[in-house]
TrEMBL record:
This is Glycosyltransferase. GO terms for molecular function: glycosyltransferase activity. InterPro entries: Glyco_trans_1. Keywords: Transferase. One of its GO terms (biological process) is lipopolysaccharide biosynthetic process. The keyword Transferase applies. Gene3D superfamilies: Glycogen Phosphorylase B. It comes from the Bacteria. Residues 109-262 form the Glycosyl transferase family domain.
Amino acid sequence: LNAIKPDTIYTRIGSSWIGIATSYAKTHKVKHAHALASDSSVTRKLLGKPLYPLFSQIETYYINKGLVGADVIIAQNVFQQQMLSKRYGKESILVNQMTPSVDESCLQKKYNKIKIIWVANFKELKHPELFVQLAKDLKAHSDRIEMYMCGRSTSKYNNLLQDINYIDYLNYLGSLDQEQVFDLMNEAHILVNTSEYEGFSNTFVQAWMRKVVVVSMNSNPSDILTSQGIGFLTPNMTDLVATIHKLIEHPEIISELGKKSYQYALENHDLNKNMKKIIEVL
């Protein structure tokens, strides 16, 4: 930072760097804007017991210092705004997740088989095993569906990957780059999210921009899925299976919601529109 001598510091990482950036900004009288990247940033929700408790305490101290001291905080959803106000007494600016717009002519969906995708790295909080269970529960539709998972895996999930190999209509594509994910979404019909929590998942916005219906078990940022009628919140496996079953049986619903999702994304999550908001606060 001393070498760069910034006029403004923009951070978007839930770590002690937030506090360090705030300290530098105060000392050098420059602006610090912090963009939240997850709901966990304002709840400090941790999975499991910290490996190094003292380090975790230091990390939390600097994160809190950064959240309190930042000149501007950019929130992803209403929940984050509410928690910031409640826990830190901080107001924030809501800026929608953004993605480049996609020409509708590129989105010619075929419905001979319904393509259902899961996009995330294999982690405990992402629960990839639930998507595999969904695949098993959809066996009766095996001739009408194709299911795909993509994202980095680890040796911890070797048994799960073996399970995937035994399901003919479920394919694990490994880690894909952004363009490969977009190509997958361009042909997909349904995105399933099994995460415990998100901030505002980029994959939601990217899916909406490609006429993909989002079905989520827990994450419903600012209640958009339900309030805008562009997706489904299914808090348990029974509801998830029933919802996917209905969509497979009624592709016209997928088509209708896909078009609605696309229009919503164009109006609210276009990259150029939302970048202007960020530039204004910087």
